[in-house]
Design goal:
The complex is a heterodimer of chains A (about 140) and B (about 120). With about 140 residues, chain A is of the alpha+beta class. In chain A, α1 packs antiparallel against α2 and α2 packs antiparallel against α4. Chain A has a five-stranded antiparallel beta sheet with strand order 1-2-3-5-4, with helices on one face. In chain A, about 35% of the residues are buried. Chain A starts with a strand and ends with a strand. Chain A is globular. The longest helix of chain A has 22 residues. Chain A has four helices and five strands; from the N terminus they run βααββααββ. Helix content of chain A is about 35%, strand content about 30%. In chain B, strands 1-2-3-4-5 form a five-stranded mixed beta sheet, sandwiched between helices. Chain B is α/β, with parallel strands linked by helices. Chain B is built from four helices and five strands, in the order ββαβαβαβα. The longest helix of chain B has 16 residues. Classes of the chains: A alpha+beta (about 140), B alpha/beta (about 120).
Amino acid sequence: MSGKDKILIKSSTGNLHLVRDFVEKKAAEMNIAQSVINQIIISVDEACTNVIKHTHKYNDHNEIEIEIEFRNNQFIVTLKYEGEAFDPTKKETPDMKEYFKKFKIGGLGIPIMKKSMDKIEFKHTKPNNNSLKLIKVI
Amino acid sequence: MDEFTITEKKSGDLIILNLNGFLDAHTSSVLEKKFEELLSKNLYKVVVNFSGLSYISSAGLGVFMAYIETLRSNSGDIKLSNMSDKIYNIFDMLGFPILFNITKDESEAIVKFNETV
């Protein structure tokens, strides 16, 4: 893989499989170990799911662009989408013992992203452009 | 495309669910509906066999969190079996084995139910 590659999807959970397939294909081209590919795939899925659900509130008139690049031994997936700013890096990680004790539901997408990726960067540009970078060092 | 399906069988008072395909934010409602159906029939002892499941995301984990308390408070449980390493890693990443009984084989899960009766 050279340079950047990207896909554009309508903001719908029905398109998550397209995103996963795209990430898998691009990561496989780089001969990345399958266990690492799996970590990248679930992180991108969780990130897209959060945008679809929370930022776009399931309105599929919105779109998400998923861009992949490989440079300096980093596999970088960038989500670009419009909507209100929400920085997942600022979200506190739940105490899982407490989580299980209280039978909580939801809120696990960001912890999965944080555990699976090496770095996450969020940038909001006015009026409503968001960029979420998920970075895995290979 | 084979998205997500569930097949169901009975073994005594246990229900065994076989999951197939991809369990994500799009398909998790199918599993939710299945648990609702079981609750409506007062069926609280459930073994979930993951051998046919290729993928799970947090939306799938959320379904098990949503029903475990209700099933246990009705003398039931959700026991999970036959996970591939890929699926187990997702459960393990967040510590789910603390709350859920995860066995290698379906038969082991069934035995564990009988032990606790």
